[in-house]
Amino acid sequence: MIHLKNKNTTFKQTPLQKTYFALGTRINLTIFGCENPVILDKTYDLIKYYEDILTVNRDESEVMSINHAAGKYPVRVSEATYKLIKRSVQVSQEYLGFNSLIGPLVKLWGIGFDNANVPEDEDIKSALNLIDPQKIILDDNEMTVFLQDDGMELDLGGIAKGYIADRIKDFWHAFDISSGIIDLGGNLLLVGPQPIHDDALWRIGVQNPHNARGSAIGIIVTSECSIVTSGIYERHLEVDGKSYHHILDSKTGYPKQNNLASVTVFSKYSIDGEIETTNLFFAGEPVKDWGKDNPNLLGAVFVTTDNKIYLSKFTPNDFHLLSDEFEVIQH
Q1: Packing angle, helices 160-174 and 270-283, rounded to 10
Q2: Maximal C-alpha separation, the chain
Q3: How far apart are CA 12 and CA 286, in angstroms?
Q4: Distance CA 84, CA 87 (A)
Q5: Residue 87, φ and ψ in degrees, nearest 5
Q6: Of 31, 81, 159, 265, whose CB is crowded by the most CB atoms within 10 A?
Q7: How many Å apart are CA 219 and CA 223, to the nearest integer?
Q8: Residues 6 or more apart from 25 whose CB is under 8 A from it?
Q9: Element housing 315 (H / E)
Q10: What is residue 323's three-state secondary structure?
Q11: What digits encode the pLDDT tens for the residues 119-170?
């Protein structure tokens, strides 16, 4: 997604912005109506705190302590970590696409890393035995987590950014931040009214999957919300003329095959956006009655590989098309 600003409009409030690096990506934090940069630095400290306990990209963290003990014994973790793990496991056990235990399969393929390759079928089958979300035992009383088989790995990378973004918003509210932008490497959370436009609404561009980042195919005008995208266009592997993207199917062990280039979810909470983009990508098309009973799910935009755009909970009037190469179809 792309955050679009009106260059012809004078800021009603001067923005305060700083860029950091964490969570394996560039972090951009922007607040309006506040001149104290210490708040942004404290926000960065909060991000680093959660990264320290949730990361699997270091040998030591609360999540890694669980992985090191796989097949041996349960591990007690902090309440925040436990609650996030419990949410991720419950969603994983619905088998809709999201799977927080898919780590061994991701490592096997290595797409997006220097060791990227197409694994042997027998290696994929072995990895599938290690990614069953039913093989995890949670103890609410002791707040312990136990991976039953040696070699299993818990990876919260598919949900952690959303969780952290929501905690940043809570943190900013404690300091009475009226408006701001939390950009965790493309995971966007808009806080409060937009201070540039007279209508106080944000303009969000949906990425063109065929072009470089920053090129929008259309705009959604919205109040404060989270915007999360799952797409096949940024990380992929080319072997013998065939392209393999990074969104792996825990049922087959191979990249999920459908006609989608991307799914973008607009929601109240960023953690919901993380989960729903993955599940909707696996659905392959708009889901009947999606979000009907959940007002926190505001809408979704599906972009297909053959340049069609499908909308859920949005109407064509909500989506301002910018490219005549694409066609908006109401589902």
Answers
A1: 150
A2: 61
A3: 38
A4: 5
A5: -60, -45
A6: 265
A7: 13
A8: 184, 185, 186
A9: none
A10: coil
A11: 999 999 999 999 999 999 999 999 999 999 999 999 998 899 999 999 999 9
